[in-house]
Write a structure and sequence with these properties.
This protein is mainly beta and about 160 residues long. The protein has 1 helix and 16 strands.
Length: about 160
């Protein structure tokens, strides 16, 4: 009699979220997928500057400067910001009245609104997004000359 051989593990069907109990809500596609991030909930309102050393999701209201230059900042659909935002990667789904400074990238989602200037090396404005301001995509300044260029320059001038 024929006996089915066991399937390699990579071909076995995985448990789906519907069959597997979950203790935390699944992150939305546009929210940070990183290990952990702080959240400012939709009922929270803050007046003052904010800084930190972790990724941040803002669903509430914030009036002041946000400074997380080495981390991701996501302004969710309910997020309302009045002030400048500094981050590594900035994603806007809500409303921002202020300038945005992305170290690596800025993404303005379809539901997002920005009234201010954008400074980032990579900028993505989704169809349907609302933007009024200027965009500066100038690359970061590089050192004036590389060490190998100094040797070549010194040899030519001798």
């Amino acid at each position: 009699m024929w006996k089915k051989s066991p399937e390699p593990e990579e071909f076995r069907p995985q448990a789906t979220p519907a069959t597997q109990p979950s203790t935390a809500p699944a992150p939305k596609a546009s929210y940070p997928q990183a290990k952990d991030y702080a959240t400012i909930g939709s009922t929270i309102s803050i007046k003052g500057d904010l800084s930190g050393e972790e990724d941040l999701l803002i669903e509430g209201k914030l009036e002041g400067k946000i400074e997380l230059r080495r981390h991701c900042v996501t302004i969710g659909k309910n997020g309302r910001i009045k002030g400048d935002v500094f981050g590594k990667i900035i994603t806007v789904e809500g409303t921002v009245e202020g300038n945005l400074y992305g170290e690596e990238q800025l993404i303005l989602r379809q539901a997002g609104t920005v009234r201010g200037n954008i400074v980032a090396p990579r900028v993505a404005l989704e169809d349907g997004s609302n933007f009024k301001g200027s965009i500066d995509m100038s690359p970061k300044e590089k050192p004036a000359t590389a060490p190998q260029d100094k040797v070549a320059t010194a040899a030519k001038s001798s």
